[in-house]
Fold:
Amino acid sequence: MDTTDIFLYVGYLLIAVGAVLALVMPLIKSFDNPRSLIKTGIGVVALLVLFFIAYSIADNEVIPRYAAAPFNLTPALSQLVGGILITVYFLFGFAILGIIVTEINKIIK
Structure:
């Protein structure tokens, strides 16, 4: 193992530690103000509802080419990926709509 591998593993470790701290520290801070947890919970529930709707809309059809090796795509996995993609499309649309509404509010004010 040369130094490049060691530095890569150290980098991976630091990214993991940073990701964990980015998730845990706001939770610790929010215990001072429990109302902020309610807002976060509402946001998470809204995302889960949006994903459930998108997952319900998604199709589970798999083309035979993708059902074979090397992809081995199953209908359940196809529906999951479709649900994730539709969720991203919805969120993108909401973001564009939010930008348009904000700009119209700036023009009016």
Observations:
- The chain is about 80% helix and 0% strand.
- The two ends are 63 Å apart (CA to CA).
- The mean pLDDT is 92.
